Amino acid sequence: EIVLTQSPGTLSLSPGERATLSCRASQSVSSSYLAWYQQKPGQAPRLLIYGASSRATGIPDRFSGSGSGTDFTLTISRLEPEDFAVYYCQQYGSSRYTFGQGTKLEIK
Amino acid sequence: QVQLVQSGAEVKKPGSSVKVSCKASGGTFSSYTISWVRQAPGQGLEWMGRIIPILGIANYAQKFQGRVTITADKSTSTAYMELSSLRSEDTAVYYCAASIAAAGEDYWGQGTLVTVSS
Prior knowledge:
heterodimer; A: seven-stranded mixed β-sheet; 11 strands; B: mainly beta; seven-stranded mixed β-sheet; four-stranded antiparallel β-sheet; globular
């Protein structure tokens, strides 16, 4: 199975700042089948990015994804108060999907 | 717009089994890949397995192989996840999710809390 390692574990930033979250895979992710999810307490995850760089429906353009192979990045250009949450990457390029362990984005 | 409604919370004894259902409406059930994901209290997301209803093929995470069974009933647009030999570490919220990866479609159920306690 592909192991996804996210960094940092916790990111402390202020509204208006830029956030950069990393996701590294133990082997190449097929066809860039890499997604990013946002999860807030008590809620189901919400899809932000699929195919490494495509925004899901209704996702603001301050969210962007990039990368290929084994290294992927989620960037939030200017943080809004509602963006503080936990973010997960997921690969779905193999028959056994996997999630990263998550990055908590907290208010500084 | 697909809606997924899961069965209610369960309390189970160690060693027993649990079966959680996930009923879909508002979409073409067979077109989606149905995944099951769990989240233990205060922990991250853990992918358990998936099924492609139109093919009837299921794949499971290595960790759960032999202990989890995912099925789908196309006639009722309902997916099921059964987990056996329950232990306390299986206490978690279990989610179903329906997706069409290429189109970025992704819908989640409300989650089902399964508590394993003697």
